[in-house]
Structures are given as C-alpha cells and as structure tokens.
Write a structure and sequence with these properties.
CATH topology: Rossmann fold
Strand content: 5-15%
Strand order of the largest sheet: 1-2-3-7-6
Number of strands: 7
Radius of gyration: 21 Å
Bound molecules: thiamine diphosphate, magnesium ion
Number of helices: 13
Structural class: alpha/beta
Distance between the termini: 43 Å
Shape: globular
CATH architecture: 3-Layer(aba) Sandwich
Mean pLDDT: 89
C-alpha cells in the first residue's frame, strides 16, 4: 500500500482568481465592505495584492477532486487501514502492551489521506503533533514499524524509544510526532525555510489542532512564513475539541481559516470528512505555495470519535453528538457509498477489508514478537556533545 512518488507539480503563477478577488476589487473604496475609505481611493488595511479569500473562492468553485475509480479506491484503503490500525492500537493499549500516551486518529482519516496524497513523498516534508499514527500510515510508512514503536520494541521506527507521540521517518521527510502543543508549527516553518534556502522545490505541510491554534508561537511562525514567502501549508485540524475543551469555550475566533488574515496568509475552509474535498483543497493550496506565493492556511473541519487520548472517557460531550457524526458524516462510509455508486462491488470491498484486517493483525504480531530495545540504545539518538 506504499504510496508511489508523484511527479513534482510544475511552477505556476498564482491562480488567476487571486487577481480577481473581492478584496482586490474593494480597492476603489466604494465597495459594501463598511471599511473606511481613504482620500487616495483605497480602503484602510486593504491592499490589492492581498486576496485573503481568493483561494477559498477557487475551492468553492470546484470543491471535489476528480478522482479516478482507482484513486478513490486507494484513498478508501488508506483510510480503512488507519481506522483498523487505530482500533487495534486501542486494543493493545487496553491489554497493557502500549505504554505512555496514545492518541487515536479515528474519525479524522480523510484529512491525512486527502492532503498527503497530493504531496511528493521524499521531497515535501510533513510535521504534526502527537496524534500522528494516521499521518504516517497515509504516507505509506510500514504498519509493522509503527506498531512496533507503539509497543516500545527495538524494531520500531524510533527504535522503540519514541512511542506513540514521537515517530519520525527522515526517508519520507516525516518529521514527527511532537508532544509540545504548537511546537510543530515553528519547527515546520523551519523546515519550510530549509526548502526555500536549499531550493529543493519542497513544501512543508504542518498540521496542528484547534487548541494548538491559540499558541503564541503559531503567530510568530505565521509572520515569518508570510514575510519570507516560505513554502508551507499550515493545516488546522479542527476536530471540535482541545482535550475536553470545546472550540467555542476556548477560542475567541472559531473560524480558524481567518487566523492568518493579520499576516496576509490566505485561508480556506474545508470539510475534513470528505476525502475528495480535502484532496481538492490540497491541489489549490499546493499550486499557490509552489508558485512562490508564500504560505496558505487550511482549516480542515473534522471530528474525533474517541477521547482525546486513551485515558479520556470523553464525558464533556453527548453520545448522540458522536453518533450523529459517525452515522451521517463518516469519511470511510462516504467513500464506500461513492465507490458502490461507481460500480465497485460489495465483494471487492469485502476483500479489501479482509486484507486490511490481516495486514493490521500482522503488524500487531510483528510488534508483540519483537524484542525490546537493547540496553545500549539508551545512549543513542541523544545529545551527548557540549556546545
Ligand atoms: C505547550 C503545551 N501545553 C499544553 C499541553 C497539554 N495538552 C496536550 S494536548 C492538548 C490539547 C490540544 O488540542 P488540539 O490542538 O485541538 O489537538 P487535538 O488533541 O484535538 O488533536 C493540551 C492542552 C501540551 N502538551 N503542550
Ligand atoms: Mg482539537
């Protein structure tokens, strides 16, 4: 299920819609924006070259990616792999085979799959927070080494020393896996600086949550990224909650796609429960960023079905709320219904389900039968030099 490397998108200028945006046309100062008209004909704070909503407009004009049957089937398989993998991880946690923290990605699968399917593995870079298993699987990283990491085995991708929250694959340019809320945004901005400095043509995708979006360092990063036109897509995975805090209780501005406005970062508001919508948003964002226009901010609205982590009974929301999302907005059910409509048979989907269950079972067997790290590993991958 490894993802084939995709060809690098050609450098293109900013989408034409960027020039014909409502913001740009408001320059005359006579628009109905209610903003103060300036004597020289402009509008306070307005700038013809800045089109905050232009990408949203491009997205609204064409919301869903035109996937072939094969592509949609691939997205479906990747989402199902994440779902079954996470369910198995939850079971292993219950059995005491996974220690420490463990944050599951169940419900959010379409976000990582939709976005990462648009990236070029090995060229672009990805960084995220502690809810990272799904992003790794979406990048085609071997489930065996992820499960082995979760269970603290030497064969794990961080040699069993990182666990659920600290997984990396430099080969895939996947830079973690971070437990400090918001830190990955600054680190991702550094990765984007690296792409620009070395001229390698890569783009960084930096994921963070609605809670993390209230961290100060996020805005320092926005400023630098916009000032230096760094190739970065900031992705706010708005799953409605930061631990037990509902978005409306913790955020003054709950329309997260607007959070870049003060830094001239165009935002897009995306339905994260539809993998084709997510993928299409990635297309628009990547075209803009690869064109040398600087960062884009995506707010991807999603939902986590499980608690914040394995130790959270999620008493701050009703069963009905979760049920409603599961029954009416599930990204995997949605893709399945679409595949059936396109003529893919139930039998074919059952076959896929069976193969995925077997693959996940295999990864758990591999992990359970792998030895713990050797003692000498205590002294590797740590800073020993003095500066
Ligand atoms: C700097 C920092 N502050 C607080 C925490 C504790 N903490 C861990 S997760 C979390 C909530 C984050 O929520 P969100 O960004 O919405 O991500 P989600 O868990 O929903 O994916 C908090 C406050 C932390 N790990 N790091
Ligand atoms: Mg959240």
């Amino acid at each position: 299920m490894a993802q084939p490397a995709r060809p690098r998108a050609a450098k293109k200028p900013a989408p034409a819609s960027a020039k014909a945006s409502p913001e740009a046309s408001a320059k005359s100062g006579t628009g109905s924006t209610g903003e103060t008209a300036l004597p020289q004909g402009g509008v306070a704070g307005d700038d013809a070259s800045f089109a905050l909503r232009s990408l949203q407009q491009a997205h609204a004009n064409n919301k869903r990616f035109d996937a072939s049957d094969e592509q949609l089937l691939e997205f479906y398989e990747q989402m199902l792999l994440i779902r079954r993998f996470e369910e198995k991880a939850g079971q292993l946690y219950g059995l005491g085979l996974i220690g420490g923290f463990c944050h599951l990605y169940i419900g959010q699968e379409a976000v990582a799959v939709g976005l990462q399917s648009a990236l070029t593995t090995g060229k672009d870079s990805v960084i995220t927070g502690y809810r990272d298993h799904g992003h790794m699987l979406a990048y085609g990283i071997d489930p065996n080494v992820i499960m082995a990491e979760l269970t603290g085995r030497g064969a794990g991708i961080s040699r069993g020393k990182g666990g659920s929250m600290h997984m990396f694959s430099t080969e895939h340019r996947f830079f973690g896996g971070h437990g400090i809320v918001g830190a990955q945004v600054s680190l991702g901005t550094g990765l984007a600086f690296g792409h620009k400095y070395s001229g390698d043509g890569g783009v960084c995708m930096a994921y963070f949550g609605d809670g993390a979006a209230n961290q100060g360092q996020v805005y320092e990063s926005f400023n630098m990224a916009a000032l230096w036109k760094l190739p970065i897509i900031f992705v706010i995975e708005n799953n409605g909650y930061a631990m037990g805090t509902k978005v409306s209780r913790g955020s003054a501005e709950t329309a997260f796609y607007r959070r870049g406005t003060g830094f001239r970062i165009p935002g897009m508001d995306v339905n994260g429960m539809d993998v084709l919508e997510v993928r299409q948003a990635a297309e628009v964002a990547l075209e803009y960023v690869r064109g040398g226009n600087g960062p884009v901010l995506l707010e991807v609205k999603t939902y986590r079905y499980r608690g914040h982590s394995m130790s959270d009974p999620a008493k701050y929301r009703s069963r009905e709320e979760v049920q409603e999302m599961r029954e009416n907005h599930d990204p995997i059910d949605g893709a399945k219904a679409e595949l059936l409509k396109r003529g893919v048979t139930e039998d074919k989907l059952k076959e896929i389900e069976k193969a995925i269950r077997a693959r996940v079972g295999q990864s758990a067997d591999f992990a359970e039968s792998s030895p713990e790290p050797e003692l000498h590993e205590l002294y590797t991958d740590i800073l020993v030099e003095q500066y």
